[in-house]
Amino acid sequence: MRAVDIFIQQILNGLSIASVITLIAxxxxxxxxxxxxxxxxxxxxLMIGGIVTWLAVxxxxxxxxxxxxxILAVGLMGYILERGLFRFTxxxxxxxxxxxxxxxxxxxHVVVLFWNPNQKSIPRPLTTVWEVGGVRIASVRVMVxxxxxxxxxxxxxxxTASRYGRALRASVEDRDTxxxxxxxxxxxxxxxxxxxxxxxxxxxxxLIALFPITPFTGGTMVMKGFAVALIGGLGNIYGAVAAxxxxxxxxxxxxxxxxxQWTDAYSFALMILVLIVRxxxxxxxxxxxxxxx
Amino acid sequence: MKTVLKMGASAALCLGALAHPAFAxxxxxxxxxxxAESGSFVSAGHTLPAGVGLAVKQINDAGGIKVGGKTYRLExxxxxxxxxIATAIAATQELVRDxxxxxxxxxxxxxxxxxxxxxxxxxKIIHFAGNSTLAKILTPDxxxxxxxxxxxxxxEPQEFQRSGSTARGVLTLLExxxxxxxxxxxxxxxxxxxxxxxxxxxxxxLKAEGQDVPDIIFYPPDTTDFSPFLTRAKSLxxxxxxxxxxxxxTLTALPQALELGAxxxxxxxxxxxxxxxxxxxxxxxxxxxxxxPVCWGESSNPKAKAYFDAYFAAGAPHGVTSSVSLxxxxxxxxxxxxxEKAGSFDPDKTVEALLTLHHQGVVxxxxxxxxxxxxxxxxxxxxxAPGGAISCSMQQPPxxxxxx
Lengths: 293, 404
What we know:
The structure holds 2 protein chains of 2 kinds.
Chain A: H1 3-35, H2 42-58, H3 63-84, H4 93-115, E1 129-132, E2 135-138, H5 139-161, H6 163-173, H7 175-180, H8 185-210, H9 218-232, H10 237-257, H11 263-277
Antiparallel strand pairs in A: 1-2
Helix pairs in contact in A: 1-5, 1-8, 1-9, 1-10, 2-3, 2-4, 2-8, 2-9, 3-8, 5-6, 9-10, 9-11, 10-11
Chain B: H1 2-19, E1 28-35, H2 42-45, H3 47-61, E2 65-67, E3 70-80, H4 85-99, E4 103-106, H5 110-120, E5 126-129, H6 140-143, E6 152-154, H7 159-178, E7 184-190, H8 193-208, E8 212-219, H9 227-234, E9 240-245, H10 247-260, E10 265-268, H11 273-278, E11 287-290, H12 304-313, H13 326-342, H14 347-356, E12 379-384, E13 390-395
Parallel strand pairs in B: 1-3, 1-4, 4-5, 5-6, 7-8, 7-9, 9-10, 10-11
Antiparallel strand pairs in B: 2-3, 11-12, 12-13
Helix pairs in contact in B: 3-13, 4-5, 7-8, 9-10, 13-14
């Protein structure tokens, strides 16, 4: 295999890593950046999305329908948890953070209780592998990249160009004034939380299409999601996408050419560096919303 | 009121009798288990209580153990270490100080066991662990009476033995399937204490078998996307990629390796053929698998099928490395036999008995501990041909570690 083929293969590898990380990062950046809720259980939302997909596919449903179910189920879970837990912590984000840490353990153990701790996997929804020169391109990875691009474009448009997005951004700037202008801030917070959760559900469905998952898969993914959200700038979808790409390529290249065992360390070192040099992220973002009084 | 009190007292007595119908409280011997029943090491961890629990049930169903003229029933008290060393230490302290177990099994995570031994050994608790890393501390000095690890036993062969038999088995089984003698191997290994320890021995074992090993690629624990690591391995054009550790990661990596066409054949450490069949895995190139120590799903060991039938019938999950349970199951029976032989639960007499017994287990008809409290037995290696046929063979360990 030629060196140039290896190089191109590593770029493609990086792109598919970036896709799932970007999906989780968008959820994190929206929820953390726009509502102030620090939900470290977001990785478990992703895991639940994967489990729902696995259950649906195991029950004989097709992958597309399973994806829809995962999005709906995790979105509904997000709604229930925001209404039932996180809304009581909005004025004390540290409490919300602690609640989310507890949720990690609870959600993992609920899954272990009902479906055991072993790996879950589904048959590849797409099995074709194209060979171009010496480079192998798996169609399932192309599918994941394409879905991510579509979802990112949709989310970006919704936040930047829609009436809902404008109101949301106004709420981030100044919640009190936004409320005085008639924007139902609390309802918008719920909406963002549900949207971010649904994206995690989609991420989980796409993740299990690529790799087996376990009840403990969420932990690593959420750390990377937070790293990407912070590198890109909180609340900045464009930043999350760019940072996701940077992180994916850094991971791919460090595993391929550097000290492979340090792959995660490179990513988090980059995050630390960015936070020191540019506290609002590479592409600028909110520093988290001011809390409602 | 008196009637109510009498009824309450009667009910309490009845409930107490139901809890232990045949044995009084002082006729129960508690055996502790510390294992990862959650967290990243769960696939190996959950085999431990399952294996110990099955042995405890078998012993109790057969009437318990007779020690010093009395019959005792065994009771397993298990604790989940959540793949967290601090939790493992706390659980061990609780089992030793509060629960007052007579013996402890675990943990399956190598470095955890070393920490646990710091609690079990001063307390004179018989401690079994299927960790080859124990070789670091099991020395003639440390295991002698009064030594700091006198009550510690390693129920997995020494790593040069396991690595040596595995490497030889993999190369022997893959050669006819490849149609030529493989020359170049690349290892892909999880970068934690266990992975680093195990891979250092396996690397030497491969070299001793004449393999060119240009790279050992370490990946961070919890990796799910192996494509960058596999692409790196592919660039070295290997005959075999050896996924040396651990089973869950290996099963995640293999489909990606097949998709990338990373090598001409593969070896999966710690993956039972049973899971290969159950998940209906297949490959267009030969794939070797090794079990720790006897395979579930396809085995040349005549006792294996009956054991795994009983193991799963008792409710054990169908895990990637279900065979790891045998590093513990046999030693509960071994320990029970030692207590009966010693005629006492005295830890010193028990150690003496353990060192002189020849136990007939599932893994081997002649399980014994050497003077440094370590077992020696064969390791089973299997290979799946393209198309699915699986063949297995027991590989005897080398007599000594390779020089280098």
